[in-house]
């Protein structure tokens, strides 16, 4: 049952990811990306990580993709405006992609299956209580760093969007 | 007293554009006040009447559908003089005159009568000028005591003599009442 | 054992689905009635006694209307818009505890479709998907007014989701759980969250108005500027789906308000009722109480609709970002301090 679901989800993920790149219409490709994100959330659910799945849905499909759709809709991209990239940059992109793919594949092939080394800690790490404790005790520093990073990004965005008062005067 | 402080109705309000304080800009107090105003209307008497079953009383001088009157002996008053058509500001009235034949004295009072008399109720504005213009007291707007009914075709609103002339029984009844 | 649970849940889901539909249907009727009453009118009273058959007549009318699809390249997306709106509006009810439990045939029947650990996050997740129905529908209509309205609805919903989330965080800090069942159970008797989190409640209330696109935040379907809003190009039952989804989500958000802040199915004296009258009767009353609360909130939605005029768009954004979010954050900080102090001294 789980395996069948996994294959279905994986095919949806891969299919929509490919369609995201291949469709010409930017809105369609954004919507394919949303479906792709949903299927990834499905993968999380298969791994019994409800919290991660829901946060993924809220953040990626609920917020980021909506903003993406926003910008695409407002930009009103047409076929005429489509920029044609030169052949050199196309070749460069393909080569770069292949290299990244090889690196990723090599990395994944070298990893050992960790199933044997699982040990029972007796704690349910899917429970948000345990998750919160782990995040705020053991991984306190990276957690706070991440929040500071986000804060800096936010302040930067506000600063950029603010009008320059001296220039106006 | 300067001109802009005079308020004849006593309801004049000064518009102020003062900056709202933080508490005011939350709108909470104003919203709660407004909610109380609207909820009070939930308990007030409803002004709607259920129309076809319930009808509002008509004013004694209301103007409804026209009626071409008959006199005491049941003869039509109208002589097709056309003064009503001239007076009509909406040009709703048309008519065609005809001469009374011998033997029709019971039907028409004068020698000339309206063979066709049509009012387009879609054009009519119920101003009552036709009633005022009529020298023979032939047309009245209150007498019929009916409102113009709705219809789904435009042609249905052109009322001919079949709908406008006072029914004979009504004229006879009226004359009976007058005698007694 | 497994199959009985599946059957039980299946029946329960069907009941909840039917209930949501009926509530949404009669919300349309209630909307017209309440609107009439607040304006000193009577409202629909021709179809059936008190106009109770009016929703059926409306539905029949919508079904028999001409189905019109504008000339667009995105027929599929055009059809997907109302479908997404509707399914999202119905999905949220899965995690809502409609009552404590009933004992049928010696078994405890839990009155909730599913009790997941992160129910509150699930609701927010589903809410955030809700924007897609409007955005996709508005864009696929191939009409600039629909697009503008979809934009407005989208940005409004994203902005108010932030304040809504922050308001709920203070509540979660107090209750220490994201499970709606536990939150409901914690508010037994008159121990309702609204007494501990009044500010959070008001923020949540305002945000749920914005999330359901109701007046005073119904800028998305602002007739004066945008014709009919994102569903301008829709006709027949597709249009009906959008309208229906609005009422369904109104029902659901009233339910969430009742569950989170107004003690869900709890009423004063529930323990006494359980002891004296038995679990079934006490909890049946609980379900009824929950529905009374829900109906009150639905009425409140309509009441507000006829009280407050529509906000201007910049006012809406100012209220969301510059008022509600700072207040929500302050609320979180104060809640945190109070919890810490209470831990120390009590």
Automatic annotation (TrEMBL), chain A:
Coiled-coil annotated residue ranges, if any: none
Q: Which family does it belong to?
A: Belongs to the complex I subunit 6 family.
Q: Which Pfam families match?
A: Oxidored_q3
In its UniProt entry, what is this protein called? Answer: NADH-quinone oxidoreductase subunit J
The record's subcellular locations are: Cell membrane
Which reaction is the catalytic activity of this chain? a quinone + NADH + 5 H(+)(in) = a quinol + NAD(+) + 4 H(+)(out)
Task: Give TM segment ranges.
Answer: 6-23, 30-47, 53-75, 87-109, 139-160
Task: Report membrane topology.
Answer: Multi-pass membrane protein
- Native source organism of the sequence: Flavobacterium cauense R2A-7
- The EC number on file is 7.1.1.-
Query: InterPro entries this protein is in?
Result: NADH_UbQ/plastoQ_OxRdtase_su6, Nuo/plastoQ_OxRdtase_6_NuoJ
According to the UniProt record, one GO cellular component term is:
plasma membrane
From TrEMBL, chain B:
Topology in the lipid bilayer: Peripheral membrane protein
Molecular function in Gene Ontology:
4 iron, 4 sulfur cluster binding; iron ion binding; NADH dehydrogenase (quinone) (non-electrogenic) activity; quinone binding
Domain 4Fe-4S ferredoxin-type residues, every copy: 69-98, 115-144
Q: Which SUPFAM superfamilies match?
A: 4Fe-4S ferredoxins
Q: Where does [4Fe-4S] cluster 1 bind?
A: 78, 81, 84, 134
- The record lists the membrane-crossing segments as 20-43
Record's catalysed reaction(s): a quinone + NADH + 5 H(+)(in) = a quinol + NAD(+) + 4 H(+)(out)
According to its UniProt entry, the protein's GO biological process terms are: aerobic respiration
EC number(s) recorded for this UniProt protein: 7.1.1.-
State its cofactor.
[4Fe-4S] cluster
Q: Where does [4Fe-4S] cluster 2 bind?
A: 88, 124, 127, 130
Q: Does the keyword Metal-binding apply?
A: yes
Pfam families registered for this protein in UniProt:
Fer4_7 (PF12838)
State whether keyword Iron applies: yes
- Which free-text remark accompanies the cofactor? Binds 2 [4Fe-4S] clusters per subunit.
Query: Family per UniProt?
Result: Belongs to the complex I 23 kDa subunit family.
Could you tell me what this protein does? NDH-1 shuttles electrons from NADH, via FMN and iron-sulfur (Fe-S) centers, to quinones in the respiratory chain. The immediate electron acceptor for the enzyme in this species is believed to be ubiquinone. Couples the redox reaction to proton translocation (for every two electrons transferred, four hydrogen ions are translocated across the cytoplasmic membrane), and thus conserves the redox energy in a proton gradient.
Cited PANTHER family: NADH DEHYDROGENASE [UBIQUINONE] IRON-SULFUR PROTEIN 8, MITOCHONDRIAL (PTHR10849:SF20), NADH DEHYDROGENASE UBIQUINONE IRON-SULFUR PROTEIN 8, MITOCHONDRIAL (PTHR10849)
What is its quaternary makeup?
A: NDH-1 is composed of 14 different subunits. Subunits NuoA, H, J, K, L, M, N constitute the membrane sector of the complex.
Q: What is this protein called?
A: NADH-quinone oxidoreductase subunit I
Q: Which organism is it from?
A: Flavobacterium cauense R2A-7
UniProtKB/TrEMBL annotation, chain C:
Q: What is this protein called?
A: NADH-quinone oxidoreductase subunit H
Instruction: Give the family, as the similarity comment puts it.
Output: Belongs to the complex I subunit 1 family.
Q: Does the keyword Cell membrane apply?
A: yes
- Please write the reaction equations for the catalytic activity of this protein: a quinone + NADH + 5 H(+)(in) = a quinol + NAD(+) + 4 H(+)(out)
Pfam families in the cross-refs: NADHdh (PF00146)
Q: Where found?
A: Cell membrane; Membrane
- Membrane-crossing ranges are 6-26, 76-99, 119-141, 162-180, 192-210, 241-264, 284-304, 324-342
**HAMAP family per the UniProt record, alphabetical:** NDH1_NuoH
Enzyme class name: translocase
GO cellular component entries: plasma membrane
An MF annotation (GO) of this entry: NADH dehydrogenase activity
This chain's function reads: NDH-1 shuttles electrons from NADH, via FMN and iron-sulfur (Fe-S) centers, to quinones in the respiratory chain. The immediate electron acceptor for the enzyme in this species is believed to be ubiquinone. Couples the redox reaction to proton translocation (for every two electrons transferred, four hydrogen ions are translocated across the cytoplasmic membrane), and thus conserves the redox energy in a proton gradient. This subunit may bind ubiquinone.
The cross-references to PROSITE patterns, in alphabetical order and at most eight, read: COMPLEX1_ND1_1 (PS00667), COMPLEX1_ND1_2 (PS00668)
Topology class, membrane: Multi-pass membrane protein
Spell out the subunit comment.
Answer: NDH-1 is composed of 14 different subunits. Subunits NuoA, H, J, K, L, M, N constitute the membrane sector of the complex.
**Gene behind the chain:** nuoH
Biological process (GO) annotations? aerobic respiration
Keyword Cell membrane: yes or no?
Answer: yes
Which InterPro entries did the record assign? Answer: NADH_UbQ_OxRdtase_su1/FPO, NADH_UbQ_OxRdtase_su1_CS
Ordered alphabetically, the record's keywords are: Cell membrane, Membrane, NAD, Quinone, Translocase, Transmembrane, Transmembrane helix, Ubiquinone
Give the enzyme's EC designation: 7.1.1.-
């Amino acid at each position: 049952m789980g395996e069948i679901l996994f294959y279905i989800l994986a095919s949806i993920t891969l299919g929509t990811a490919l369609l995201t790149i291949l469709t010409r219409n930017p809105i369609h490709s954004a919507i394919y990306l949303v479906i792709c994100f949903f299927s990834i959330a499905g993968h999380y659910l298969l791994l019994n990580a409800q919290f991660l799945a829901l946060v993924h849905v809220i953040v990626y499909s609920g917020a980021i993709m909506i903003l993406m759709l926003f910008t695409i809709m407002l930009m009103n991209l047409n076929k005429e405006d489509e920029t044609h990239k030169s052949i050199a940059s196309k070749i460069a992109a393909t080569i770069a992609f292949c290299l990244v793919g090889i690196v990723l594949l090599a990395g994944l092939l070298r990893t050992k299956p960790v199933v044997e080394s699982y040990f029972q800690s007796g704690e349910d790490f899917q429970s948000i209580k345990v998750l919160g404790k782990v995040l705020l005790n053991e991984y306190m520093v990276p957690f706070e760093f991440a929040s500071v990073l986000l804060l800096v990004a936010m302040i930067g965005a506000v600063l950029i969007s603010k009008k320059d008062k001296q220039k106006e005067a | 007293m300067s001109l802009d402080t005079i308020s004849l109705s006593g309801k004049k309000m000064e518009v102020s554009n003062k900056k709202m304080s933080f508490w005011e800009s939350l709108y909470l107090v104003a919203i709660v006040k407004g909610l109380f105003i609207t909820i009070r209307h939930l308990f007030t008497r409803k002004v709607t009447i259920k129309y076809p079953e319930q009808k509002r009383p008509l004013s004694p001088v209301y103007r409804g559908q026209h009626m071409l009157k008959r006199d005491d002996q049941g003869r039509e008053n109208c002589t097709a003089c056309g003064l009503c058509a001239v007076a009509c500001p909406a040009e709703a009235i048309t008519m065609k005159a005809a001469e009374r034949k011998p033997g029709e004295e019971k039907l028409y009072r004068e020698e000339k009568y309206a063979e066709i008399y049509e009012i387009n109720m879609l054009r009519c504005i119920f101003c009552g000028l036709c009633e005022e213009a009529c020298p023979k007291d032939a047309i009245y707007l209150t007498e019929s005591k009916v409102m113009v009914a709705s219809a789904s075709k435009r042609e249905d609103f052109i009322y001919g003599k079949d709908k406008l002339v006072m029914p004979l029984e009504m004229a006879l009844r009226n004359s009976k009442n007058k005698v007694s | 054992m497994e199959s009985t649970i599946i059957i039980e849940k299946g029946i329960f889901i069907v009941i909840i689905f039917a209930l949501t539909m009926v509530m949404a249907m009669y919300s349309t009727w209630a909307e017209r009635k309440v609107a009439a009453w607040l304006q000193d009118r009577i409202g629909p009273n021709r179809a059936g006694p008190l106009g109770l058959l009016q929703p059926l007549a409306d539905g029949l009318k919508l079904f028999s209307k001409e189905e019109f699809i504008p000339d667009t390249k995105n027929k599929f997306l055009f059809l997907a818009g109302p479908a997404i709106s509707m399914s999202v509006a119905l999905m949220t009810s899965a995690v809502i505890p409609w009552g404590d439990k009933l004992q049928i045939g010696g078994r405890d029947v839990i009155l909730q479709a599913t009790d997941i650990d992160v129910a509150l996050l699930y609701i927010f997740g589903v809410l955030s998907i809700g924007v897609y129905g409007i955005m996709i529908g508005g864009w696929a209509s191939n009409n600039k007014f629909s697009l503008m309205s979809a934009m407005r609805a989208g940005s409004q919903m994203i902005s108010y989701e932030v304040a809504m989330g922050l308001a709920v965080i203070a509540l979660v800090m107090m209750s220490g759980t994201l499970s709606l069942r536990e939150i409901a159970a914690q508010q037994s008797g008159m121990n309702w969250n609204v007494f501990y989190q009044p500010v959070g409640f008001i923020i949540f209330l305002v945000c749920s108005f914005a999330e359901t696109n109701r007046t005073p935040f119904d800028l998305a379907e602002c007739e004066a500027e945008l014709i009919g809003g994102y569903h301008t190009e829709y006709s027949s039952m597709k249009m009906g789906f959008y309208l229906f989804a609005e009422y369904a989500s109104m029902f659901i958000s009233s339910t969430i308000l009742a569950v989170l802040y107004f003690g869900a199915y709890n009423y004063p004296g529930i323990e006494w009722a359980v002891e004296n009258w038995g679990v079934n009767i006490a909890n049946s009353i609980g379900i009824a109480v929950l529905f009374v609360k829900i109906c009150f909130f639905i009425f409140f939605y309509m009441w507000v609709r006829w009280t407050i005029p529509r906000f201007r768009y910049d006012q809406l954004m100012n209220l969301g970002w510059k008022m509600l979010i700072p207040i929500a954050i302050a609320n979180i900080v104060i809640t945190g301090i109070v919890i810490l102090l209470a831990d120390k001294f009590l």
